[in-house]
Amino acid sequence: MNQKENFFKGILKENPLFVSVLGMCPSLAVTTSLENAIGMSIAVFFVLVLSNFLVSLLMSSKKIRELVKPVRIPVYIVIIASLVTVVEMVMHAYVYPLYISLGVFIPLIVVNCIILGRAEAFASSNKPVDSVVDGMGMAAGYGLALMLIAFVREVLGKGTLTIWGSLQLDLHFIFDFLRITPLDMFSKPVGAFMTFGFLLATILAISNKRQAKLVEGGDKK
Amino acid sequence: MSNLISLAFAAFIVENIILTQFLGICPFLGVSKKRSSALGMGLAVVFVIILSSTITWVLYQYVLVTLNIEYLRTIIFILVIAALVQMVEIFLKKVSPALYKALGIYLPLITTNCAVLGVAIININNGYNFIEMLVYSTFISLGFLFVMYIFSMIREKLDFSPVPKAFKGTPIALVVAAILAMIFARFGGII
Asked: What is the domain range of residue B13?
């Protein structure tokens, strides 16, 4: 597998959120605005790439691998928790409003299954460079999925699109044109479950159709 | 006292841990296919949340604050939870094999359940005192058990309903959860 494939598998084929359905909690909680989703994606990107790198570096030495094997999960958790603490402190210092609106979900990156899952499934048995690329792909796939949910929820729920801080698009003219108002429900928990459910169903429908086509194509041959 | 009652009610229904705070979604979707397993998971979570919140709260107030190392909170809490879950498992195995049989398989899953770490951190962030912390963690975990159990009953019925092919499995479960969330949010007017 070359690096390009390694990177893109995280975005489409093995998308952590829509295909493996991992890391659900933040994907429902922080997607009330696009800005929150972007902030969360950056935090996860940083933690995932670095934790993959550090874990694979640690495991690349045979001696350490033998030593660490029985207690590897606690070791991964300590590495991840340290990185998350760094992210938390940096966000507290430089992007305070975002730190407040993400709230408890920044420390909870520690228990996000994607990060521990990649450390165990990929980084522990691959080279550091591959692991970094894998981490970047997975984090990008997760981030894009978060942004997709946040996009739907913010546009339908508030009629705006906040990209970063005061950089905000006002889409009320579309709603005025169609003579409807944004539905507040979508920025509430109800909307989170609903949006995720429908997006997941759409993606399953598309992949079912594609699979059916593949099977058909195989039969013709 | 009335303060504590409203805190308990809010934790149990209005700010329900699953449906409004989105903590513990993984077991909510993963282990809710059968009533018995939902009950087992729920009870194990209640047990671990109350125990771990108490320990982390005491540790934070009397060790981390005294030593001025509050920033190590995340690392210390997750280690405490992981060690605690292990100890509970060993303890149960020895003392009550029946209970261990019922809850045993769910215990290792709890370490990475974000509800446990989440409640421990929320207790600190909201600045609860000891009694408030105890009431809050008890009722929030009971709320978890309650919603888990309701949801598993719905899902058992859902297996017999004609669901569109693309919605089978997780998507329809999420739509059901959305309707449940709508119901629970309406209780907000009471407080």
From this structure: 2-190
